[in-house]
């Protein structure tokens, strides 16, 4: 039996609480933003050469429609987004439903409600993926880090099964703040791109090393911890960096300039403008294969 393959570890792995030797972003004072630099190279130039920094609409276009709904996903597509970020929970009868919070106002936890008790505006994951086609979709599994239950495992398994059944796996990346959740998806379906989400106060370089060691293809950090050191280390091992949730056009342009693969944003129009791209029509190009 062949032994495990050796993986190249990201360089300069940080110490606990250390975000790398590069300069982290600070809200209101982006250290690598040069007002004279202008936006990154044009969309057309990037399509011909370097990888495009893509725009993922956070919960669809919540500016134009109720977030995490079919209308919001269609609106984001019309604005020119390259991808959609959405959240998924499991209903009492095992249906995959799209909503950010674990509870519905006035109705209680989604986990306690059957499909028939859910409001009409709340889409199933299947409906959301259909409405988002042909865009890429970042499916975030809502699971608490540090806890792992049989129900969490069922949620991860059902997401993996649905993604595989649609025969368009290259459209999807499954993410979570729960390492156990993305490990479960990767273990069940290695073909599906998976990404580890991290929040404030977590070491981005240590998270990058963990993601790489576990076979995940993306890291989705809170944007203030992203710096040139992190992006360079990620590129060295083929891991995509998609910061969340960044709306300031100056920061979006700065992140693109250091080479992030995508930004997750609430403002698709502002993001496209910061990247020097026209809109609508950003979804007209063929998305690159998710790493």
Textual characterization of the structure:
- The chain has 291 residues and is α/β, with parallel strands linked by helices.
- It has a domain of 196 residues: Alpha-Beta Barrel (TIM Barrel), CATH 3.20.20.
- It is built from 9 helices and 11 strands.
- Strands 1, 2, 3, 6, 7, 8, 9, 10 and 11 form a 9-stranded mixed beta sheet that branches. Strands 4-5 form a two-stranded antiparallel sheet.
- A hairpin with a 3-residue loop joins strand 4 and strand 5.
- The chain starts with 42 loop residues before the first helix and ends in a 17-residue tail after the last helix.
- The relative contact order is 0.19.
- The N terminus and C terminus are likely disordered.
Name its key features:
29% helix; 9-stranded mixed β-sheet; disordered N terminus; TIM Barrel; disordered C terminus; globular; 291 residues
Structure at a glance:
With 291 residues, the chain is an alpha/beta fold. Helices cover 29% and strands 16% of the residues.
| Average pLDDT | 85
Written as H for each helix and E for each strand, in order along the chain, the element string is HEHEEEEHEHEHEHEHEHEH
According to DSSP, the number of beta strands is: 11
What is the overall silhouette? globular
Query: CATH H level of the domain at 43-88 and 134-283: which superfamily?
Result: Phosphatidylinositol (PI) phosphodiesterase
Number of helices: 9
* Content-based structural category: alpha/beta
Share of residues in helices? 25-40%
Largest sheet: 9 strands, mixed
Q: Look up the CATH topology of the domain at 43-88 and 134-283.
A: TIM Barrel
CATH architectural name of the domain at 43-88 and 134-283: Alpha-Beta Barrel
Report Rg. 18 Å
**Gap from first CA to last CA:** 28 Å
Which range does the strand content fall in? 15-25%
């Amino acid at each position: 039996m062949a032994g495990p393959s050796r993986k190249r570890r990201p360089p300069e792995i940080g110490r606990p609480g250390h975000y790398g030797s590069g300069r982290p972003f600070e809200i209101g004072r982006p250290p690598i933003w040069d007002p004279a630099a202008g936006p990154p190279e044009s969309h057309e130039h990037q399509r011909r050469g370097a990888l495009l920094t893509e725009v993922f609409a956070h919960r669809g276009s919540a500016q134009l429609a109720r977030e995490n709904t079919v209308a919001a996903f269609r609106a984001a597509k019309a604005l020119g987004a390259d991808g959609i970020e959405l959240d998924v929970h499991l209903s009492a009868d095992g249906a995959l439903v799209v909503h950010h919070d674990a509870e519905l106002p006035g109705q209680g936890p989604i986990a306690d409600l059957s499909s028939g008790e859910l409001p009409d505006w709340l889409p199933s994951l299947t409906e959301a993926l259909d409405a988002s086609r042909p865009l890429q979709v970042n499916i975030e599994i809502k699971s608490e880090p540090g806890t792992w239950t049989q129900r969490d495992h069922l949620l991860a398994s059902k997401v993996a099964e649905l993604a595989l059944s649609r025969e368009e796996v290259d459209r999807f990346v499954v993410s979570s703040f729960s390492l156990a959740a993305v490990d479960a998806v990767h273990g069940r379906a290695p073909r599906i791109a998976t990404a580890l989400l991290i929040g404030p106060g977590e070491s981005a370089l240590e998270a990058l090393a963990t993601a790489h060691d576990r076979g995940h293809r993306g890291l989705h950090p809170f944007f203030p911890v992203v710096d040139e050191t992190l992006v360079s280390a990620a590129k060295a091992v083929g891991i995509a960096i998609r910061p969340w949730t960044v709306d300031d056009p100056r920061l979006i342009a700065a992140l693109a300039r250091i080479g992030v693969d995508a930004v997750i944003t609430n403002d698709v129009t502002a993001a496209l403008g910061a990247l020097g791209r026209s809109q609508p029509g950003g979804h007209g190009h063929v998305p690159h294969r998710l790493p």
